[in-house]
Amino acid sequence: MAFQIPISQTQSFSTDRPPFPSLSLKHPCLQSWIPRYRERMGLEGRRRLSSPRLRTTVVVSATATEMPRKPRSGEEEKGFVDEMRAVAMKLHTRDQAKEGEKEPEGEPVARWEPTVEGYLRFLVDSKVVFDTLESIVAESACPWYAEFRNTGLERSENLARDLEWFKEQGNAIPKPSTPGVTYSQYLIKLSAKDPQAFICHFYNIYFAHTAGGRIIGKKVAEKILDGKQLEFYKWAGDLRQLLQNVREKLNKVANSWSREEKNHCLEETEKSFKYSSDILRLMLS
Ligand code: HEM
């Protein structure tokens, strides 16, 4: 497994500055990768890094591991996102997606009877969740999260425009309700203490919205909005490329995780489905 640390970070270990001034060394992100970094570099402590000879070794070694290995012919490069996707697809019901393995429960989306009031509750609670995700990556308590700023997948501003439009049409905008608020609080807690689990939610929320979320949005719009396409379902630029960029970043971040940490991330998928499904159901309330 490649261990990828940008050279700028390896250098900060070779100075007297702490590696991440804004973070406690007890932070789970640092606890997770500092010991493996030291193990890999054959280091027991920062004192040994102050030797100029060792400093050179660290930089050369980091440079070599940053070179992506070329796939051999016929060999497909599989990243951690493929593993996250495989787990997520199995959690769909058979009527939701071809790869779904769960028995259908309730009506298929095509037979949903959404109401404008319910759809507004869904949009308001979705905004609470996207606002939360976007402020977590903006603050980046964990250095990995900074990779996911300005991906182009952000939804908060688009949702704000949609809610403004509904207001202009004379609709009352409801207050956030339990499903959105509960999920948001859970994400805040996870982002501080369990980064692998947080990344699982980050992936599922953004990618689900571009897949099933869009299908649902289209069907609902046909039924209750005269087919109007909301801003929530529009992205600036080529969506496929935006998704690919985020996949690459997720793969890069997960490259430094142990197998146990990866499994822990995958195990969180079910919770992500549960919280998101509770918000989806608001459409029918
Ligand atoms: C009624 C609910 C849902 C429907 C109809 C639905 C439908 C779909 C469909 C059709 C796909 C595309 C499959 C493909 O690539 O061939 C998909 C992908 C996906 N869904 Fe869902 N889904 C639903 C709910 C959810 C939920 C609640 C989550 C998790 C929070 C989720 C997570 C994902 C993920 C991660 C992918 C993969 C996206 C990608 O690879 O780009 N879905 N879904």
Describe the structure.
- With 285 residues, the protein is an all-alpha fold.
- The N terminus is likely disordered.
- The protein folds into two domains: 60 residues, no CATH class; 205 residues, Heme oxygenase-like (Heme Oxygenase, Chain A, Up-down Bundle), CATH 1.20.910.
- The longest helix is centred in the middle third of the chain and has 24 residues.
- The protein is built from 13 helices and no strands.
- The site of protoporphyrin IX containing FE has 20 residues, from α5, α9, α10 and α13.
CATH topology descriptor of the largest domain: Heme Oxygenase, Chain A
- Number of separate strands: 0
Strand content: under 5%
Please give the share of residues in helix.
55-70%
- How much is the radius of gyration in Å? 22 Å
Summarize the model shown.
By secondary structure, the protein is mainly α. It has helices at 7-13, 28-41, 46-49, 52-66, 80-90, 116-139, 156-168, 178-193, 195-210, 212-224, 239-254, 259-267, 269-280.
